[in-house]
Amino acid sequence: MNVQDIVNTVSAKAGLDEPTTEKVVGTIFSVLEHEAEGTSVSSFFDQIPGADALAQKYDVMAAGATANSGGGLLSSLQGALGGVLGEKAGALINGVAVLKASGLDMAQIQKAGTTLTQQAEAAAGPDLTNQVLDQVPSLRGHLGL
């Protein structure tokens, strides 16, 4: 199973169009790439061809990644928190902002997150998937897992 298979399944099950689904999946993978440590995240991406490239395409730490999140106070707060708390917290904060700015409600984000997790478990195995997700416990909360 490659990343396009996962995007297609999440799109169908969550009722989202493909470009939005690709952004959601890429954003979640990017948060994992920045926040999970060690070889587990590399092994995880190795099991899902294209996942690493999608994470880089939607890199939550790239300049302007949250530019469409509305700016203003929220943008300033994200930048300040990311700077103070470091890259790890900044990646999660930016990722959540990107997901919320995508126009999806929490139910849609949670449905996409649940489906993505199921597909990742099918591709990379439940043990490795949970090992990676356990390194980013606050992401589970945001995705309703």
Structure description:
- The chain is mainly α and 145 residues long.
- 77% of the residues lie in helices and 0% in strands.
- The protein is globular, with a radius of gyration of 14 Å.
- About 14% of the residues have low confidence.
- The protein is built from eight helices and no strands.
- The longest helix is centred in the middle third of the chain and has 30 residues.
- Helix 1 packs across helix 2 and helix 3 packs across helix 7.
Q: What shape does the CA trace take?
A: globular
Q: N-to-C terminal Cα separation, in Å? A: 22 Å
H/E topology pattern: HHHHHHHH
Report the portion of residues in β strands: under 5%
CA radius of gyration is 14 Å
Structural class: mainly alpha
Query: What is the residue-mean pLDDT, rounded to a whole number?
Result: 84
So what's the oligomer here? single chain
Low-confidence stretches: 67-86
List how many beta strands DSSP finds: 0
Number of helices: 8
Biggest beta sheet attributes: none
Task: Classify the helix fraction into a percent range.
Answer: over 70%
